[in-house]
Amino acid sequence: MQQPEPQPGTFFFPGPTEVRQDVLKAMLRQPIPHRGAEFHEIFSRIQAGMRDVFQTQRPVYVLTSSGTGGMEAAIRCAPRGRILALVNGAFGERFVKLAHECGREVDQIGFALGDVPDADEVGTRLEAGSYSALTMIHNESSTGALADVRAIARVARQSGVLTIVDSVSGVGGARLEFDAWEVDCVVSASQKALALPTGLAFAVVSENYLRAIEKVEGRGMYFDLLAFDSHGRNHETPATPAVSLIFALDRQVQAIVSEGIEARWARHEAMRVTMEQWVGRTRDALDIDVSILAKEGARSPTVTAVSLPSGMVSTDLVREVAERGYTIGTGYGALRSATFRVGHMGDHTVAGLESCLAAVAGGLRALRN
Ligand SMILES: *Cc1c(COP(=O)(O)O)cnc(C)c1O
Questions:
Q1: Which atom of ligand 1 is nearest to the CA of 138?
Q2: pTM (whole model) above 0.85
Q3: Closest listed residue to residue 140, CA positions, set 70, 92, 99, 186
Q4: Which is nearest to 139 in space by CA: 108, 172, 162, 106?
Q5: Ligand 1 centroid – CA 144 distance (Å)
Q6: Residue 176 domain-assigned?
Q7: Which residues make Cβ contacts (< 8 Å) with residue 315, sequence separation at least 6?
Q8: pLDDT attached to residue 295
Q9: What pLDDT is stored for residue 1 in this prediction?
Q10: pLDDT of res. 7
Q11: Which residues of the chain have pLDDT under 50?
């Protein structure tokens, strides 16, 4: 049965996230030819804004796929040789599986759930092995842990290893500076902190990475980033893009640019702090043993996973919160029952998040009784 459409400001799911009405409405027009002048104009306007979002002078490739497609493109085009995957949650694991399925040799180094990769440990491992690239998750959405991409990219560079970053739930909410941090490949997607509908992925690559692609055999066709690079010079994509989503992207990129990327990061950071304070307050006020899963100092500004006391399961809480008019998420993967997740990303505000958290507190109280 179809659910009534949620009220604006109530959808705190950790991806997809809420999309503003004006962005949705931007899609309500006829498609246009994707090799014509109007498309070129839209695409170059998007480029200018997206460079700001990724903090880069490099082109931003627009792929028609979900975030996993962007991850697959990064792996398929990665330079020959072994890959080291840094795994601190379900999405880190996804890179391992993906690399394996794409016929790549991949080793992994694990970190506890809620923790983030340690640069020294990674550096030691890179020196001991012979790797061409490493994969990491900027913002591990399954645990709400935010990794230090800059520090990892630095040790990788010292070992001559290229850094591939999944920032699917980071870009647009968590600080990421592609050029200054000297990373080699970042992939993201539309439906998380960029607050767009589902269906687009984005990729930015360094010149080093781009040069390496030419020598990679078997990289396939649809996700060949070299083709995205050459077509991009013409303000086009290799194949027909999702034109309706491009209209939405055009609209939303302008909104992000007028907010300012620094202000956007600050708004997300304020929501992280709101979550942290709320968990502390709620633990005391309700005498319920809730805690933030991610370790202090490595907490995400876009998604928070909260551990529940034993005996409480997340599906019950999600239902209680829904009855109070708000949507939050259960935990992800192995953490599905024991944690719940709040997606405080995209266009959400501290005030909106506080209303949502009041509903979550109501749900917790009901379950405790
Ligand atoms: C959502 C997400 C993905 C991609 O998932 P898709 O369903 O393919 O869009 C990848 N990595 C992270 C960290 C994510 O949060």
A1: 13
A2: yes
A3: 92
A4: 172
A5: 13
A6: yes
A7: 330, 337
A8: 97
A9: 57
A10: 87
A11: none
